[in-house]
Amino acid sequence: MVARPDLSNDILFEIFSRLPTISVGKFRCLSKTWRNLLSTPHFIKSHLAREKARHQYLIIIPRCCSTRSVEIIKINDTVSKKISLPGRWNMIIGSCNGLVLLLSDHDDDNEELLLVNPITLEQAKIPISPLALRQSESFSLYGFGHDRVRDDYKVVKLSYELSDQPGLVYTDIFVDVYYVKTGVWKRLNNLPNSSSYDHFYTSSRALVNGAIHWLAASTRSGRGFVITAFDLVNETFFEIPIPVVGVDVKCFSPHFIVVLGGCLCLMDCKSNVEWANILVMKEYGVAESWMKFRVYGYGNFAYFKPLSFIGDDCDAEFMSVVEARGLVVYNPKVGIENLVALRARGKFEDGGTFVESLVSLASLRS
């Protein structure tokens, strides 16, 4: 009997890069050779590129004082999975390449940050910046993303001291960056153009095109609000053009900025109104590319957050987390929603999306 030749590493590479993350993890345990092959940075990046083209996952934080878990569910699936975590987390700062950054700020002066891969369950606490202002006396925003040039992940914190002067919300803005590879916080000199901002909105942020985006009120600029962005490679701030078609920016009431279908997404809602406008920037940086559709029937849109389209069209059904209802699928064409069954019941703190990945926190720091 003629022995079959071993498959080349190139063929194995192609086969394994098409498998789900959990399957790759199991094959790593079968052979030292396979473990070495499937743990290389080249393989992890190739596998991640394929996973980004596949279905995303949703991550949901239930609202319960005793919960120490989150739920994950694959989009277009009906079965959720509960993941236990140390501590109680109430906000999803963001996700990037399969890593999710969670925040706990239940205590006025005791923030906590946790970076976790929900598929491999690898996790690490992120230390709070030693440069940080006292939380009870300041206002802060976080963001999370990847520096593609240095292949490093960064946690960005904007903070400013609250002012006791009439008509002035804050004084100086401080920008601190945490580098996951080295585990070091650094204060930057590059600051946003704060002279035109009245205050920032803390409820949301969006990672698109290698930059973290926040919303700021800007009555002094005459535009009502601005979108300020932080480039993760150059560590500089810039502004994104706001909608110019079909929106009265002076009357615009931005509630949040998120990522929807890979694009920047704004929500325009007012108190006690039965509808809200959802705006999606189809072409990044192009003011004329903002597309608008309307959502009806929720009454209080303060707890309505779009997460992901189901399908490739920006007018297709999308999934949202609604505090009082849970996870819903909403069809903007006909104004109909369907509830998605989850293990947790009751209200929800936050929701977000992520992709499967083999990105390892330990390997980043090795």
Automatic annotation (TrEMBL):
Residues 7-46 form the F-box domain. It comes from the Eukaryota. Transmembrane segments: none annotated. Pfam families: F-box, FBA_1. This is F-box domain-containing protein. The lineage of its organism: Eukaryota, Viridiplantae, Streptophyta, Embryophyta, Tracheophyta.
